C-alpha cells in the first residue's frame, strides 16, 4: 500500500498541514522530503530505513554522496535536494544572526554553528565579525585543516578584522572526531589571538568549539 492509499488523516503531508511539522516523526518528515519510496516499501518506511542506517539525523545530514547513495532509492538527486535544504537553513539562521538583537542570544549563535559545521570531516576555523553596535558584519572561514588539526595564524585574523573595520569578533572551530572540550592548543591559540587583537583595539567576545550537537563556549566557562 502506498501512502496515497492511506486514510487521508494519517498521511504525513496532511498531518503536517493540520497539526504542524512538530507532530511528525523524523521518518515521516523524511517521507515528505523523499516523496516516494521504492519497490516494496513506501516513503515512510524508506525514511525509517535511512534513520536506522545512519543512526541519527546528524548522521544523515553529514553523509557523503557515496554514503547517501548506498541506500536504495536515495541517489544524487535527493542528495542534492537535501544539501540545498541544509544550505537554506544555514542562510536563514545567518539572516537571524544579522538582526541587531540576536547576537545577545548565545543559543542562536550555537544553533547557527551546529548547522555551519554539520557533516564536516575536517577542522575549519571561522570568524564572525561584528561592528561597534555588536551587529554581524560578516562570517568567513579563514583556515581549514585535516581531521584533527588546522593551523591558525593570528596576523591573518587581525588583517581580516581590520579589513572589515570590526570592533569585535567571535571565533569558532570544530572537532570532527572528538568532544567539544577545548584542547590545550585551543586555549593557547585563544590567548594569543586575544593579545594580538588587543593591540589593534579589537575584542574577542567568544570562542566556540563545535562537536556534533555539542558546542563549548569559552566565555561561558571563563576561558577568555
Which structural class matches the secondary elements?
alpha+beta
Shape: elongated
Q: Which H/E pattern describes the elements?
A: HHHHHHHEEHEHEE
Helix content: 40-55%
Total count of strands: 5
**Rg computed from alpha carbons, rounded to a whole number of angstroms:** 21 Å
**Could you describe the largest sheet, including whether it forms a barrel?**
5 strands, mixed
- Number of helical runs? 9
Low-confidence stretches: none
Report strand order across the widest sheet.
Answer: 2-1-3-4-5
This entry's quaternary arrangement is single chain
- Mean pLDDT over all positions: 83
Report the end-to-end length measured between terminal Cα atoms: 59 Å
Strand content: 15-25%
Helix-strand layout with pairing:
Blueprint: H1 12-19, H2 26-34, H3 43-54, H4 57-61, H5 65-69, H6 76-97, H7 106-117, E1 124-130, E2 136-144, H8 154-163, E3 168-174, H9 184-198, E4 203-211, E5 214-217
Q: Which descriptors apply to this entry?
A:
224 residues; alpha+beta; five-stranded mixed beta sheet
Task: Characterise this structure.
The protein is an alpha+beta fold. The chain is 44% helix and 16% strand. A 5-stranded mixed sheet has the order 2-1-3-4-5, sandwiched between helices. Strand 4 (203-211) and strand 5 (214-217) form a beta hairpin. Helix 2 (26-34) crosses helix 3. The longest helix is centred in the middle third of the chain and has 22 residues, at 76-97. It is elongated. The mean pLDDT is 83.
Amino acid at each position: 500500500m502506498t501512502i496515497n492509499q492511506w486514510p487521508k488523516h494519517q498521511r504525513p503531508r496532511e498531518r503536517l498541514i493540520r497539526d504542524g511539522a512538530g507532530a511528525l516523526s523524523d521518518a515521516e518528515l523524511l517521507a515528505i522530503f523523499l516523496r516516494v519510496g521504492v519497490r516494496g516499501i513506501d516513503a515512510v518506511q524508506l525514511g525509517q530505513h535511512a534513520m536506522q542506517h545512519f543512526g541519527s539525523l546528524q548522521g544523515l545530514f553529514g553523509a557523503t554522496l557515496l554514503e547517501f547513495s548506498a541506500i536504495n532509492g536515495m541517489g544524487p538527486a535527493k542528495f542534492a535536494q537535501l544539501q540545498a535544504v541544509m544550505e537554506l537553513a544555514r542562510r536563514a539562521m545567518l539572516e537571524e544572526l544579522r538582526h541587531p538583537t540576536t547576537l545577545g542570544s548565545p543559543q542562536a549563535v550555537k544553533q547557527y554553528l551546529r548547522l555551519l559545521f554539520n557533516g564536516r570531516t575536517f577542522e575549519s576555523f571561522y570568524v564572525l565579525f561584528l561592528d561597534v553596535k555588536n551587529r554581524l558584519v560578516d562570517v568567513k572561514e579563514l583556515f581549514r585543516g585535516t581531521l584533527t588539526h588546522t593551523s591558525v595564524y593570528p596576523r591573518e585574523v587581525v588583517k581580516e578584522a581590520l579589513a572589515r573595520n570590526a570592533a569585535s569578533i567571535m571565533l569558532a572551530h570544530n572537532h570532527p572526531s572528538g568532544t567539544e572540550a577545548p584542547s590545550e592548543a585551543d586555549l593557547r591559540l585563544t590567548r594569543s589571538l586575544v593579545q594580538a587583537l588587543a593591540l589593534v583595539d579589537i575584542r574577542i567576545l567568544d570562542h566556540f568549539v563545535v562537536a556534533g550537537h555539542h558546542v563549548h563556549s569559552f566565555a561561558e566557562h571563563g576561558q577568555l
